[in-house]
Amino acid sequence: MERDQLADFLRGRRRAIRPADVGLTDGPRRRTSGLRREEVAMLAGMSVDYVVRLEQGRSSQPSVQLLGALARALRLSEDERAHLFHLAGHRPPPAEGVARLARAGLVRMLDLLGDTPAMVLSDLGEVLAQNRAAVLLAGDLTGFGGDRRYMVHRWFTDPATRAAQPPEEREHRSRQLVADLRATAGRRSGDPVVTGLVDRLRAASGEFRRLWAAHEVAVRRADRKTLLHPRVGCLVMDCETLVTPDQNQQLLVLTPADAETRERLDLLRVLGVQEFHPDTSAR
Known about the structure:
Layout: H1 3-16, H2 37-44, H3 48-55, H4 64-73, H5 78-87, H6 95-99, H7 104-113, E1 118-122, E2 127-130, H8 132-138, H9 151-157, H10 159-162, H11 167-187, H12 192-204, H13 206-214, E3 222-229, E4 233-243, E5 249-256, H14 259-271
Antiparallel strand pairs: 1-2, 1-5, 3-4, 4-5
Helix pairs in contact: 2-3, 2-4, 4-5, 9-11, 12-13
């Protein structure tokens, strides 16, 4: 662990990030253009004291999980993230681990989209980051563990996930998810993460086995779906998917398809998050 270099790197990145880049206001009393330590701590979900000790070279070795949180809070690029891990005395995460950290540029786009629901997903459908509007719409989808972090797995194994869409749309939805997974499996041929997920889904769901055997392949880029929201009712959303050049991550943007849905989304913003945390299958 290179404590002094790590401290210098973290200070430099903190000072280089403008508050607006992470959705914060400058405020009348701000004397510097960068983030404050307490703001980094808030964004990373750690104590201010630990951020101070890191920047002063007095900390214990940070864990991989903590480094990932710092990388997201400071909007680090892939190269900067790898450098951070090296300075802290860790090997950078393997390809799958890196893919599970939302790209800094995509996270900035989430902030810029403001009241438009949007989220960053991996190519296997794991939600890596959401803006506040997406949390209002779909609940916090970033906290799942194991196979449940993949939307396709929840869809075929959890009846509550399907309940968020009208019955007449569920067959189409199932085919979409399987065809999209087929496309990912083709790009990542031989990847044990993908093959393991497919094998477990085939064992868990007869419907998945049937659709997988049909060998339909399709990458979803635009779609319209109906969400049955428990607080504001039926929402008809247009879904636009923007894919990174390496196809490892996606930015999903959801916009209201009609005036009634727009009004209900406005109402949802007024109601706020409160205690609503279901999976409404926005992906």
